């Protein structure tokens, strides 16, 4: 069982920045691919960004490229999401997820059904 706890959400003005963190339980964090998804009110959960087990492969949704950066610290069992140049359309609950089964070392999974564990989510609100 893997537990994921997100933090760092909040209210920010458009153009501002936030850094989300996701702390994972367990001693096998380095074997998980990690991802961030988001869900706005009335919308389906959507992919944001993912990082492979290797840490060197990442994959971003077009809507966040050049603004968001994912990173991981295996020593701290933590994945981060640095969000810059935030827009009101980035407003959503952000979820951290772990893909732990059958994921190749350099593969960055970006489909919801590839992920096995989810955090409880953290709210990000961007005001205009």
**Whole-number mean pLDDT:** 95
Q: Radius of gyration in whole Å, from Cα?
A: 14 Å
Biggest sheet, open or closed, and with what strands and sense? 7 strands, mixed
Ends: how far apart? 40 Å
Shape call = globular
Q: Low-confidence parts lasting 5 or more residues at pLDDT below 50?
A: none
Helix content: under 10%
Topology, number of strands: 11
Structural class: mainly beta
SSE ordering? EEEEEEEEEEE
Beta content: over 45%
The helix tally amounts to: 0
Description:
The model has no long low-confidence stretch (mean pLDDT 95). This protein has 128 residues and is an all-beta fold. The chain is globular. It contains no helices and eleven strands. Strands 2, 4, 5, 6, 9, 10 and 11 form a seven-stranded mixed beta sheet that branches.
List keywords for this structure.
mainly beta; four-stranded antiparallel beta sheet; 128 residues; seven-stranded mixed beta sheet
Per-chain topology:
Layout: E1 4-7, E2 10-13, E3 18-24, E4 33-39, E5 46-51, E6 58-60, E7 68-73, E8 78-83, E9 92-99, E10 117-118, E11 122-127
Parallel strand pairs: 2-11
Antiparallel strand pairs: 1-3, 3-8, 4-5, 4-9, 5-6, 7-8, 9-10, 9-11
